[in-house]
Automatic annotation (TrEMBL):
<feature type="signal peptide">
    <location>
        <begin position="1"/>
        <end position="25"/>
    </location>
</feature>
<keyword id="KW-0376">Hydrogen peroxide</keyword>
<keyword id="KW-0349">Heme</keyword>
<feature type="binding site">
    <location>
        <position position="243"/>
    </location>
    <ligand>
        <name>Ca(2+) 2</name>
    </ligand>
</feature>
<keyword id="KW-0408">Iron</keyword>
<keyword id="KW-0964">Secreted</keyword>
<feature type="disulfide bond">
    <location>
        <begin position="36"/>
        <end position="118"/>
    </location>
</feature>
<dbReference type="GO" id="GO:0046872">
    <property type="term" value="F:metal ion binding"/>
</dbReference>
<dbReference type="GO" id="GO:0020037">
    <property type="term" value="F:heme binding"/>
</dbReference>
<feature type="binding site">
    <location>
        <position position="73"/>
    </location>
    <ligand>
        <name>Ca(2+) 1</name>
    </ligand>
</feature>
<feature type="active site" description="Proton acceptor">
    <location>
        <position position="67"/>
    </location>
</feature>
<feature type="binding site">
    <location>
        <position position="246"/>
    </location>
    <ligand>
        <name>Ca(2+) 2</name>
    </ligand>
</feature>
<comment type="function">
    <text>Removal of H(2)O(2), oxidation of toxic reductants, biosynthesis and degradation of lignin, suberization, auxin catabolism, response to environmental stresses such as wounding, pathogen attack and oxidative stress.</text>
</comment>
<feature type="binding site">
    <location>
        <position position="77"/>
    </location>
    <ligand>
        <name>Ca(2+) 1</name>
    </ligand>
</feature>
<keyword id="KW-0732">Signal</keyword>
<dbReference type="Pfam" id="PF00141">
    <property type="entry name" value="peroxidase"/>
</dbReference>
<dbReference type="GO" id="GO:0140825">
    <property type="term" value="F:lactoperoxidase activity"/>
</dbReference>
Amino acid sequence: MASSSSCMAWHCLLALFLLSSTAYGQLSPSFYDKSCPTLQRTVRATVTKALRAERRMGASLLRLHFHDCFVQGCDGSILLDDVAGSSFVGEKTAFPNVNSVRGYEVIDQIKKDVELVCPGVVSCADIAALAARDGTSLLGGPSWAVPLGRQDSTTANMMEANSDLPAPSLNLDGLIAAFAKKQLSPRDLTALSGAHTIGFSQCQNFRGHIYNDTNIDPAFATLRQRTCPAAAPNGDTSLAPFDVQTPLVFDNAYYRNLVARRGLLHSDQELFNGASQDALVSQYAANRALFASDFATAMIKMGNLAPPTGAVTQIRRNCRVVNS
């Protein structure tokens, strides 16, 4: 195996996680070892049950964690509901999230199960991070020791959700800038985009790419046009897999698709379009272990995005509501 993939070894990964924990706010994979020793088994059991009911949920849980971390840090803010009769507005109805982000009920069930064994101890933000890892690994992807010890926000930020979550229409410069704003490198961007090796997207997100772009395989464009009409809003919510070959297996087929000009979103194909990320995409397409290692590294880095300095946090009893 190439030396570039050697960090898949547990001892190397653990060293990396401990180093990143120190750098990003004292998170640690062992944070709950004494206060909730059965946490990880409990989370994995519930995620396993959810994936048995619907394998696509693995991709949904991964995306939920991403959408949480890109808005005021990994603080569980995406889980908060709007509060009727008050001025509190959550992030669930932000454009990138509404009728799109899924998995809230799975997080609720995990929280319920965890509260039975460790009441008032584990944050919803940590549960979301663990669920993303387990959803990935149960679909054949890498596993990693998740640094833990996050707390839950008492606020949400719809404006930041609308502005900071990368849009599927972004070009490469826009993507690099969006990730740089979260202290994530272009390599992190390209690795994390590999999450699109699983899951599905709505027609409204890729219509422009399959009808207007030229950097797309014509046969692939025709295939996608069959269920995504050119005229909006017809078919807006029709789903298509990011990876036609193995949509529910976490592998490196996403990158092979990009090399073949079969990326589903405009933003996907921007990673392989004659610019700075072409070489890395080609490496990932040829070397699944390298992609898996870099993906785990980038997930840890993203997972350490902290709430703003001075933010009031807590351990929520119900992931959807700030403690009264």
